[in-house]
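Structure first, sequence second, as always.
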């Protein structure tokens, strides 16, 4: 009904337009229209929203002779925003484009004839902002939109993006929660794969956080939340995919932006600065970005542990404070695309970024057999430095074989990721029950590690009859991980190697994959997509310190089925099933003991098995905006952090193990509400049930809990053309593996003002306004043992950012190249 109404309004506008210009030409003498001479051309283009990039359907496009108000021809854009004028005589023309809620655009075009096909490319309309009786009426751009198979969160140009990092914005996506280690949950489920422009990052949670914290949010166009990926995507990620799409150049000529900002978290100042330069001319499209930042953070925490031993009970109480800053030279990302002809293009992209981390973690620990009478005090000061370097390169090829959409693409990728870290641990033991002197114990670790990643893939797609589509492809990847981690006693003039806590671990992994995916209509009301992906994994972990080798080879099939049922114009149902995998992280396979304090260690596990998941989904969509989605997920060999208590030594060892099984049931509702004309909200409610079963100290443990998360995003247009965005969330008590996570909530706010015809943007934002985003966790261990902690990660900070957008030369609407010659046009 909505589409029919738009079509009717478009036709009505078109008729009124031609009627108006006919009256006008009776009042003014206009030059005669060019007559057909046998030398004719064809005009075509695509109309999109300048903010969202989505096609605009049923817009009016009129063809007029230059110097005249006489309309020679007119048409409406299709569902995909395309329009075409055939058999246009050679000459100079104006294109008048209009649509309700957008600014009218007029373009000058030159048709040379000779049956030339003049492709005008993408033409972008800007939302209207009109002044009526001193009341400013603007069009609200939706921050979050819902598509058939994903939810898209628009980032580019938003107030919350200014001054924030990609990591900050990712944590604000609907249904997403990111913990302090960078682990991500989606709709209450862990095991999320993060992709960058459709490519796997291959990073551990910590390295991923480091990379995203070094990327300004202004470089992101949008974030796609894909809860049930098709067979085309890698099977990695048991709970779905978060795809971060970076801003791409869509204008001809030279354009770009520069920005500078600062943040303050109540303890330390940070900054960010950089810029982007794009140049598009002829067959070339090139870009380069430079980003430099000083990121700051820290935490305040308390740790409480009770060790129930056979002879006695030991009480452990610790207060910790920490701070860090990360900075480095500008990170550089550059790339270029070259059009070989109208149907083929090649390109490359390269990235280099490095930064230096300085982190201190200071703890005061009291230990005793009575909670109120400690017998030992430990003053521990940990100082960590690390250099993180990320180098990536990509070569790609794209061929379009016909106008129907038959395409072939190929990619070659290489990445080199390294961490060169070292740490000093200074421990002072004071016996409170005696007059013994303070004992010093100094330790030192050197932990260099790196990953080399090679990947090649090819994808082919071909349209079929009845809106069908066939996709197939293959991919091969190889990962080599080298961790040479050394542990030293540092109590003498020269450090002494501790062979019991030193490891050199090398891990290689080869994955060979192929997929077949089909989609099409079945009857009048059903669309079906079905696919099968096969992945062969070969892995080899070698602990060179001892000669221990662990090898695995396994083949997995990953089917996926999606059915879309259109019940009516305002209501549809989507059914889905997919099988996914989550392989062990390379760092978690290294059995090296990572030191936190004298009583807390972290150790890798070379025997980790991959986690396999079955995911079922049913989603209802009302009026294309409201949705209610029911998901059930069954996981086998769940990979999770497990604390191991040694009551006699009062120590806690954390390692990643395979929790036997887990299941998750979730209900997700997305409800947009328009509170006022200039105030819109999009609200997400997730109700979930999690259950984990495992064995700890020879006793079975089941950890289960009902939970819910409410997230609300607000976009408000204020007087004086101010744009405000609010993001708030509340997460009820939930469970993960052996942990019980207490309730938490937060509110983020941002406000933005544009100047100089929207070329200059000034933004101010506050993260965690009420300083409420605390993390309080208890462990379900049994036997009277306790392992609880409560910490705040300095999430509240204030930021100010200034960004200037510039353009020199012609925009993509003003300059285009066809197969015969360069054609010019100018717009207003």
């Amino acid at each position: 009904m909505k589409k029919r109404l738009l079509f009717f309004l478009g036709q009505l506008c078109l008729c009124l337009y031609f009627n108006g210009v006919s009256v006008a030409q009776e009042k003014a003498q206009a030059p005669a229209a060019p007559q057909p001479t046998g030398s004719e051309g064809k005009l075509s283009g695509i109309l999109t929203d300048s903010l969202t990039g989505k096609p605009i359907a049923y817009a009016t496009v009129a063809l007029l002779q230059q110097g005249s108000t006489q309309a020679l021809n007119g048409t409406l854009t299709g569902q995909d925003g395309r329009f075409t004028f055939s058999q246009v005589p050679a000459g100079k023309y104006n294109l008048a484009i209009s649509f309700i809620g957008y600014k009218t655009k007029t373009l000058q075009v030159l048709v040379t004839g000779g049956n030339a096909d003049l492709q005008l490319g993408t033409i972008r309309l800007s939302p209207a902002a009109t002044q009526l009786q001193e009341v400013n009426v603007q069009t609200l751009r939706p921050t979050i939109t819902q598509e058939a198979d994903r939810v898209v969160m628009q980032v580019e140009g938003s107030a919350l993006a200014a001054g924030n990092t990609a990591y900050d914005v990712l944590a604000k996506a609907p249904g997403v929660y990111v913990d302090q280690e960078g682990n991500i949950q989606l709709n209450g489920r862990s095991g999320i794969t993060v992709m960058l422009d459709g490519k796997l990052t291959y990073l551990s949670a910590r390295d991923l956080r480091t990379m995203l914290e070094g990327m300004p949010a202004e470089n992101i166009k949008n974030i796609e939340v894909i809860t049930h990926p098709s067979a085309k995507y890698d099977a990695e990620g048991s709970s779905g995919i978060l795809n971060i799409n970076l801003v791409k150049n869509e204008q001809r000529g030279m354009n770009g932006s520069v920005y500078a900002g600062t943040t303050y978290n109540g303890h330390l100042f940070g900054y960010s600065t950089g810029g982007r330069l794009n140049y598009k001319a002829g067959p070339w499209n090139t870009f380069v970005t430079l980003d430099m930042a000083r990121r700051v953070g820290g935490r305040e925490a308390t740790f409480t542990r009770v060790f129930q031993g056979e002879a006695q009970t030991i009480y452990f109480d610790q207060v910790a404070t920490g701070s860090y800053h990360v900075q480095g030279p500008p990170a550089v990302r550059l790339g270029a695309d070259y059009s070989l002809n109208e149907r083929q293009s090649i390109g490359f992209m390269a990235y280099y970024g490095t930064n230096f981390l300085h982190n201190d973690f200071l703890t005061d620990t009291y230990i005793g057999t009575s909670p109120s009478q400690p017998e030992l005090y430990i003053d521990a000061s940990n100082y960590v430095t690390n250099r993180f370097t990320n180098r990536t390169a990509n070569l790609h090829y794209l061929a379009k074989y016909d106008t129907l959409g038959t395409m072939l693409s190929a990619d070659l990728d290489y990445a080199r990721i390294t961490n060169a870290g070292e740490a000093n641990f200074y421990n002072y033991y004071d016996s409170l029950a005696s007059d013994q002197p303070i004992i010093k114990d100094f330790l030192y670790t050197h932990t260099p590690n790196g990953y080399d990643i090679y990947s090649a893939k090819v994808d082919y797609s071909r349209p079929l009859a009845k809106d069908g589509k066939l996709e197939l492809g293959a991919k091969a990847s190889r990962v080599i991980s080298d961790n040479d981690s050394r542990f030293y006693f540092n109590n003498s003039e020269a450090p002494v190697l501790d062979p019991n806590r030193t490891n050199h671990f090398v891990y290689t992994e080869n994955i060979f994959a192929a997929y077949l995916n089909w989609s099409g209509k079945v009857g009048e009301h059903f669309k079906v997509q079905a696919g099968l992906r096969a992945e062969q994994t070969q892995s080899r972990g070698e602990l060179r310190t001892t000669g221990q080798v662990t090898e695995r080879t396994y083949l997995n099939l990953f089917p996926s089925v999606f059915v879309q049922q259109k019940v009516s114009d305002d209501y549809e149902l989507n059914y889905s099933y997919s099988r996914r995998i989550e392989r062990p992280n390379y760092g978690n396979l290294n059995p090296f003991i990572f030191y936190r304090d004298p009583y807390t260690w972290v150790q890798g596990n070379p025997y980790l098995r991959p986690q396999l998941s079955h995911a079922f989904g049913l989603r209802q969509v009302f009026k294309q905006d409201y949705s209610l989605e029911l998901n059930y997920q069954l996981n086998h060999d769940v990979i999770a952090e497990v604390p191991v208590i040694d009551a006699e030594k009062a120590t806690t060892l954390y390692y990643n193990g395979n929790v036997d099984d887990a299941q998750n049931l979730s209900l997700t509702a997305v409800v947009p509400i328009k509170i006022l004309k200039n105030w819109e909200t999009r609200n997400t409610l997730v109700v979930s049930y999690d259950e984990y079963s495992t064995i700890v100290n020879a006793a079975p443990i089941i950890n289960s809990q009902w939970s819910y998360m409410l997230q609300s995003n607000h976009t408000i247009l204020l007087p004086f053309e101010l744009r405000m965005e609010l993001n708030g969330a509340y997460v009820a008590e939930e469970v993960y593996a052996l942990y019980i996570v207490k309730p938490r909530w937060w509110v983020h706010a941002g406000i933005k003002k544009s100047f100089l015809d929207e070329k200059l943007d000034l933004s101010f934002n506050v993260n965690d306004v009420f300083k409420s985003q605390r993390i309080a966790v208890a462990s379900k261990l049994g036997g009277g043992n306790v392992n609880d902690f409560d910490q705040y990660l300095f999430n509240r900070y204030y930021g100010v950012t200034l960004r200037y957008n510039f353009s020199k030369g012609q925009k993509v609407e003003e300059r285009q190249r066809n197969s015969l010659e360069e054609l010019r046009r100018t717009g207003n």
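Margin note: The helical segments are 2-27, 166-170, 205-213.
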